[in-house]
Amino acid sequence: MPRSSTTQDFADRPPWTRPGFIASAAFVLIIVIAAVVLAITARGDDHTDATSTPGTTSTEEAETPPELPTTVPTTPPAGVRWELVGQTAVPVSSTAGPTRVSGGTAAGYAHTPDGALIAAAQLMIRSAPSAGRDCWEPTVKDQFVSSTDREQLLAALRANPDDSSEPGELSQIAGYQYQSYTPDTAVIGLVLRAPSAGMPRYHVLTLTLLWRDDDWRMQAPPGGAWISLNRVTSDLTGVVEWGAR
C-alpha cells in the first residue's frame, strides 16, 4: 500500500531522530545536569564549612592593635631611680626604660608618655659635652633623627670635644612640662636648675622626640644650637617638679 503523504513512518528513520529516543536522551541529559549542579553545590558547602563558622572572624583578618596610652603624667613617674652620667643625674625606670645601656648610649624606651619623658632626659644629658665624647658622639649619631641640624650639632661638639666643668657647676634636672603628646611625637619642656647662690634660676629646653624604628629619638635643635630652644625663668608655674634628691 502506498504511504500516505501525511502519515509519518518512523521505521525508516535513524533511531536518534525518533521521538522516543529523543525524549529518553533529553531525560538523561536533565539527570546529568542535575547531578553536576548538586556536586558543585555540595563542594561549595564543604568549602564554606571548612573555612568559616557563623559568628566567628576569619584568621586572615588583621587584628586591631591595642590603643597606646596618651595621657601625660601630671605627677613624677613612679619607680624611677637616678644614676650619674658624668656629673649629671639621669632617670632610669624598670617600666619606661632605658632597657639597653652600652657604649655610652641608653636606648629602649616605652612607647608611652613616661617613656618619652625618660628618653628626653637621657638623650639630652648624654648629648651634652659634659657627658664625654664616648657618650655624646654615639648618642647624637645613633639616637637623633637624621637631619642637617644633627650634622651641625655634631660638628659643634667635635670642634670643642673637651668639657672643663667643675663639680657643682652643671645644671641638674628639676622638672618637666609637657607641651604636646601623640604616639608619634612628644614635645616636652625639660627644666634644668642652674647652679646659683641667689634666687633659683631655671633653664627650660623645649625638646621634640619622634617615634622612629621602635624607639624614641631626639630631634636636633635648629642650626645645631641648643640655645635656640632655651628659655630662662625663675617661675615654675605649671611645671611638675622632678629630679634627683
Task: Describe the 3D structure.
By secondary structure, the protein is an alpha+beta fold. It has a domain at about 80-240. The chain has helices spanning about 20-50, 115-125, 135-145, 150-160, and strands at about 80-85, 90-95, 100, 105, 170-180, 185-195, 200-210, 215-220, 230-235, 240. A hairpin with a 2-residue loop joins strand 1 and strand 2 (about 90-95). The longest helix has about 35 residues, at about 20-50. It starts with 18 loop residues before the first helix and ends with a strand. Residues about 1-20, about 25-30, about 35-40 and about 45-55 have low confidence and may be disordered.
Structural class: alpha+beta
Number of helices: 4
Shape: globular
Termini separation:
133 Å
How are helices and strands ordered from N to C? HEEEEHHHEEEEEE
Quick check: average pLDDT? 82
Q: Evaluate the radius of gyration.
A: 39 Å
Proportion of residues in helical segments: 25-40%
Fraction of residues in β-strands: 15-25%
Largest pleated sheet: 6 strands, antiparallel
Low-confidence segments: 1-18, 25-29, 34-38, 47-53
